[in-house]
Design a protein that fits this description.
Length: about 450
């Protein structure tokens, strides 16, 4: 009978209290008749669970086939009076506590946890607490119902966690594909830069080789011309030496003058720097390429953690800026995520030393910027040192500090510089344009602090 009662409760709709008809399951693991759920949603004008009030993450519901088969089978057994059921009823009717007094209303002894005959066993139970059986049965059933409710609630919690793990697993697959794509894109940029740099340096090497080749060719042409001229003079002198006395005397002076003129020309010199300047091309090559690469890449002291971002926040691919969108993303309800406020944390915390970073808020109307301690409750109603949040806030055109005090500023802030001196227990805020001091909060820090960003309305911040 207890098993039957458990099954009956498990297969009952919480709206109509009847056995399920075409049961559907919500993301919170609660089950209802399909028609009952649709009527309830039409009346309430929303798609919240009738029990836990949690908004359904599923736009459309589908019949839970396994639960339907179980409910239909149970309903059929209820409508048909089986021999086994009749036998159970007979056994219940035939069950008696006392053969001598079968018609006497029995008592229930709470001390011995059993039904007793008030006639035969009265002397043995005078000091015990006894109540009518009907009253005891009613109380015990209420207790069992309470136990059943606890079991159902516990099972629902486990189902909720199981569903969250399923969501986490699916989200991990999306994270894997997205992160792989971004890693490949970043390396493609670096590879493209290196390829272009390689081609540039090879081109410079080839240009130097061509330039110096032209210089050598020019010098060699001059050398060849001089060699040709000298060869002609040598041939002329040799011919002159072959002449006889009288012809020799009449022509030797011209030959001698030409030979002496060419001999007086300065000796040829090799041009300095004719070889390729290999040291210029190879010296510290990797270092010089790395220095140039630094101009192409940027370092951010704070990287946002997408696993902490509220479902309404959208982070940039490089995780350095955030905006609030018009639609909510389907993200798993992991423990790190901010579910109540439009907030995201930095990916790395600080436990010592000095740190600073700048936040560009532009003309965004409402925001909170600062730090939050690791153990702070993300769902606290306000951001203040009382709740482990040290911040600067803008709301409805006014600037306030974490203690709720209004700050008077000469101009609207476009950027904010946050400075943390952990060891001295100071969090300071400045206008980086002229380093005007805005506000400093002093406290004693005992645990890790994370950068904190809250965007109350749609817009961008980085």
């Amino acid at each position: 009978m207890a098993e039957k009662l458990l099954l009956e409760n498990f297969l009952s709709c919480h709206v109509c209290s009847e056995t399920f008809r075409d049961p559907v399951s919500l993301s919170c693991s609660h089950n209802f008749c399909s028609s009952c759920l649709q009527k309830f949603w039409e009346q309430t004008k929303n798609k919240n669970c009738p029990i836990c009030k949690r908004k359904s993450s599923r736009d459309e519901t589908s019949i839970n086939v396994s639960l339907k088969e179980l409910a239909d089978s149970f309903a059929k057994r209820q409508s048909e009076s089986s021999p086994e059921t009749e036998k159970e009823k007979e056994e219940e009717k035939e069950e008696v506590v006392c053969d001598k007094h079968p018609d006497v209303p029995y008592w229930y002894c709470e001390d011995e946890d059993r039904a007793v005959c008030p006639v035969c066993e009265f002397p043995h139970h005078q000091s015990h607490k006894v109540v009518p059986v009907e009253e005891a049965v009613s109380d015990l059933k209420e207790q069992l119902k309470s136990d059943l409710k606890s079991l159902q609630d516990k099972r629902n919690k486990y189902k909720q966690v199981e569903e969250t793990y399923n969501e986490v697993r699916e989200h991990m697959k999306k994270q894997l594909l997205s992160t792989e794509r971004q890693i490949r894109a970043e390396f493609n940029k670096l590879q493209q830069f290196l390829k272009e740099e390689e081609e540039s340096r090879l081109a410079a090497l080839r240009e130097e080789e061509e330039q110096k080749g032209r210089t050598i060719s020019r010098e060699m042409k001059m050398i060849e011309e001089q060699i040709s001229s000298l060869s002609d003079s040598i041939s002329a002198v040799e011919e002159e030496l072959q002449k006889h006395s009288v012809p020799f005397l009449s022509s030797y002076k011209d030959t001698q003058s030409r030979a002496r003129a060419q001999s007086s020309v300065s000796d040829p010199q090799l041009v300095s720097g004719a070889l390729i300047d290999v040291a210029k091309h190879l010296g510290n090559l990797s270092f010089r390429v790395w220095e140039k690469m630094k101009e192409k890449v940027h370092f951010s002291p704070v990287i946002l953690d997408p696993n902490t971002a509220n479902c309404c926040l959208y982070l940039s691919d490089d995780l350095t800026s955030v905006r609030q969108g018009d639609t909510w993303q389907q993200l798993p309800d992991n423990p790190e995520r901010n579910t109540l406020h439009p907030t995201v944390f930095g990916s790395e915390g600080f436990r010592s030393g000095k740190h600073s970073w700048e936040v560009e808020v532009g003309d965004h109307p409402d925001w909170i910027v600062g730090l939050i301690k690791e153990s702070a409750d993300k769902n606290e109603p306000c951001a203040s040192p009382e709740f482990g949040i040290w911040c600067l806030e803008r709301q409805t055109g006014e600037y306030t500090n974490g203690d709720g005090q209004t700050l008077t500023l000469k101009k609207s802030l476009q950027r904010i510089r946050v400075q943390l001196d952990y060891d001295r227990g100071e969090v300071s805020f400045y206008d980086p344009e002229d380093m005007t001091h805005i506000y400093t909060h002093r406290d004693t820090f005992t645990e890790k602090l994370f950068p904190y960003f809250n965007i109350a309305e749609a817009g961008d911040a980085k």
